[in-house]
Amino acid sequence: MAISQIFDVSKQALQNSERAIDTISKNIANVNTEGYKRRLIDTENFTGSGAANGVDTQDLMRARNVFIENQLIKEQGSLGKYESDSAIIANIESLFGEPGSSGLQNLMTEFWNSWNDLANDPESQSARVVVRDKAVTMTNAFNRVYSDLHDMQQEISREIVNTVTQANKLIRQIDTLNRQYTVSKSADLLDQRDLVLNQLSELIDIEVKNNSGSDLVVSLDGQILVSQNYVSQIVSDASYENNYPSYTFALDTNKKAINIEGGSLGSILDINNEYIPDYMNQLDILAVSLVGRINQLHSNGYNLDGKTGINFFESNVSGAADITVNRDIREDHSLIATAGSESAAGDGSVAQAIYDAQFEKVLNNGTYSDYYNSLITQVGHQVSEANFNYESQQNIVQSLQNQRDSVSGVSLDEELAKLIEYQNAYQAASKLIATSNAMINSILTMI
Amino acid sequence: MRVTQSMMTRTLISNLNKGRESMSTSQSIMSTGKNLQSASDDPVKYATTTRYKETYSQNEQYQKNILDAKGWVDTTSSILNDIYSNVLSAKDLAYSAADSSSSTEELETMADQLEGFISEIYSLTNSKYLGKYLFSGTRTVEDKPFDYDGSTVDYIGNEGKITRRISEGYDATINISGDEIMNTDVFENLISLRDAMLAGDRSAISDSIGALEQSAQDILSIQSKTGSLSNLLDMTNNRLEVANTNLSSLISELEDADLTEVIAQYNSNELAYQAALQATSSVLNLNILDFL
Amino acid sequence: MYNSMIKSSSYKNKDDLAEHQFQQNQPLHFRFGLPGFESLREFRVINKKEIAPFAILQSLDEPRVSMIIINIKYLPVQKQIRRVLMDANRITPEKLRKIDVYVILKVSADKQRLTANAKAPLLIDWERLAGQQLVLERDDLPLEYHLNKV
């Protein structure tokens, strides 16, 4: 081989080593950078098949397993949902305060008992005071729980708006990174884009395709959010029923309804559109039923002054929000009826009948208490299920993250070992160049 | 025998005390519900525990109702007993009066005494308990149920039943209404007897003894009905207490740690020693009786 | 140790002992259920070494219903209970010998006290495999009998 050829080979070797050492240094420098994917050294694997498939060589420089990453994006969507479910539904559960002395379960029990005490002592005004007071406490609790649910719903409304804003921002970021990438292909931009994708996946259940270059397509419920030279934004719409907003979404580019089922947005959407309305509705049914039945029994009864036809609760109520004791009774407890007929002060039969109403199977073939109990149990199940799902999903995501990191992560030990290897190669190459140089010099001086 | 207010008060107080003693003294895990966490901890357990607590609370209400009923019923019983005594005394007087040896003046004196019994019984039938007329049906505070003008007694109460819910779906009627008392003809017979005495009509006097006898029997049977009701109340109360004690004894309502801790505490040498002692002696008993 | 001492000395031969131990594992029929649980009719007595001399009364109809019980022979109050059973409830001494009498235990809310319901003991007839909780109408037998003088 000609000396000059040796020179060329050495120079190539030197350049290779230099590039390798650069790559290794970059890896080491970015060991703690979030979303950084280990750069492969030229000689590692990325020629051939990838280039043949038209995949960007920039992307091929990054050590990654696309399959795992796409899985991760999907599972992160579920994680976002369960995490949010878990936290919010638990908050809702604590609103009810069950079991507890100020929870509705106990207050209803005390309400019923007060009627029996009155039935034992229908001549008494003080027993009437107790009935009224227990009723007021109970209706206040109905009002409060309902109002707390309403407040929670409003918070969630705000959260929905914020999350959509945030998601849209991330979508635009991806688009920006796409455009930047078209201009100056760099693995760093791809790293950043991956990061944003992960953040977005926690908010909404996105699907990704061609996650390795300019061909990336991000979609949601089959509709495209971002692709090459295309970006859309999520728009939300609220429709009101009884002052309650129900949310739907569409993309600004085509107005077709879009279903969001995962991510934290999927969670708060369900909670807003389904769970909370369901709880409120059940409370309303309970309240209305209670008011109707007790008023029916009470208005047939007589008080000590022979008055009859009086409602115990205000009759024109929508439900739990406004259930309240008849204001006349609030002002004058003597209006409370006990007897089945006039002039029989010792007759407590109507009060006894009202006590008995608690045993009537009036709602879904169960008592008022059964109905309320089943609501609380339902919420309990939902919390417990959300917690379980959250825990299992955390394991799934963690496992995928570990798998991803084992491919894409930087191992300092590994990098340092490679560094030594390439430093040696560099030294060897320099020696070769020096020797060739020396040889050439000696040849030249000889001439 | 005259019934005084203080006697009635004493009956009331003793009933209340008995009631208080028979209720369990310590707070139950069912009533404090301390071991029950939120539904999400264990939704299935929550549902059943809540139902148990409801039953427990209802049982407590029934016990309260029984206590209330006992006061009424025992007071009624005591008063009926006093009425009965008065009727018996009147009957004795009738025997004496029927005796041909009594003079007109003596008859007049006896008539006065009889008037005393009539007054007493009349007063007893208008008795109040905690401010309510006992024998007025459900007209407990309006007017006094019995009205005596010297020649007849009218009952102006009603036949209403006063009931107490003493167990699930079961209402016990606790009152004896005035018409039951009227049906014994006790006043009619006493007044006729008095009039017969005043008239000196000995044959009418002896005729009246049979009727008075019947009235006394009728009153006694009303009183014993009341006595049975009182026993029923006691038995029902006992059963409710036991039901609630059973509810409080459910292991599922304890946390596992409590159970082991408590058992460990009691499964001590002392208990074992006692047990061994008891066991030995009962084994001996068994053997002797078995093999005699 | 005392458990086996009692059992083996009160049986004339090993067959009787084996028979008795077998019976102890059979389901018991409670004709009236228990106060508060009238619809539960089938129960078992579960003897576990770890909790001896205590045992567990387990409902076979409703798994959540189980209670700790103890044979009254371990308690000083047994004499009183037996006497009441014979006097007031007309259970003959012969009959009383053939049945086991237990009491149901309860832990107080503050977890400090373990008490036995001496007012309503549990009668179990191993021959007929039948059981009943009898409510004794007596003021002298407490609902909460303290287990020892701790």
pLDDT averaged residue by residue of chain B: 82
Q: What share of the residues of chain B does DSSP label as strand, in percent?
A: 5-15%
The description of the largest β-sheet of chain B is: 2 strands, antiparallel
Main sheet properties of chain A:
4 strands, antiparallel
Order of secondary-structure elements of chain A? HHHHHHHEEEEEEEHHHHH
How far apart the termini of chain B lie comes to 58 Å
The number of strands of chain A is 7
Please report the total strand number of chain B as a whole number: 6
Low-confidence stretches of chain A: 45-55
> What is the 3D shape of chain A?
rod-shaped
Order of helices and strands of chain B: HHHHEEEEEEHHHHH
What is the number of independent domains of chain A?
Answer: 2
Strand order of the largest sheet of chain B: 1-2
Count interface residues per chain for the largest interface.
B-C, 56 and 49 residues
The radius of gyration over CA of chain A amounts to 36 Å
Radius of gyration of chain B: 28 Å
Spatial gap, N to C terminus of chain A: 20 Å
CATH class categorisation of the largest domain in chain B: Mainly Alpha
Helix content of chain A: 55-70%
Q: Please identify, by name, the CATH architecture of the largest domain in chain B.
A: Up-down Bundle
How would you describe this protein?
The complex is a heterotrimer of chains A (447), B (292) and C (150). Chain A has 2 domains: 3-63 and 427-446, no CATH class; 70-397, no CATH class. Chain A is built from 12 helices and 7 strands. Chain A has helices at 3-29, 49-52, 57-60, 66-96, 104-120, 125-183, 187-203, 263-299, 327-331, 349-356, 368-408, 412-446; strands at 206-209, 217-220, 223-227, 230-231, 234-241, 244-251, 257-258. In chain A, a hairpin with a 5-residue loop joins strand 6 (244-251) and strand 7 (257-258). In chain A, helix 4 (66-96) packs parallel to helix 7, helix 4 packs parallel to helix 8 (263-299) and helix 5 (104-120) runs antiparallel to helix 6 (125-183). The longest helix of chain A is centred in the middle third of the chain and has 59 residues, at 125-183. Chain A is rod-shaped, with a radius of gyration of 36 Å. Chain A starts with a helix and ends with a helix. Chain B has 2 domains: 51-249, Up-down Bundle (f41 fragment of flagellin, N-terminal domain); 259-292. Chain B has helices spanning 5-22, 29-32, 43-98, 104-125, 178-182, 186-199, 202-248, 256-266, 269-291, and strands at residues 128-129, 132-133, 146-148, 153-155, 163-167, 170-173. A two-stranded antiparallel sheet of chain B has the order 1-2. Chain B starts with a helix and ends with a helix. The longest helix of chain C has 10 residues, at 14-23. The radius of gyration of chain C is 15 Å and the shape is globular. Chain C has 4 helices and 9 strands; from the N terminus they run H-H-E-E-E-E-H-H-E-E-E-E-E. At the B-C interface, helix 2, helix 3, helix 7, helix 8 and helix 9 of B face helix 1, strand 4 and strand 5 of C.
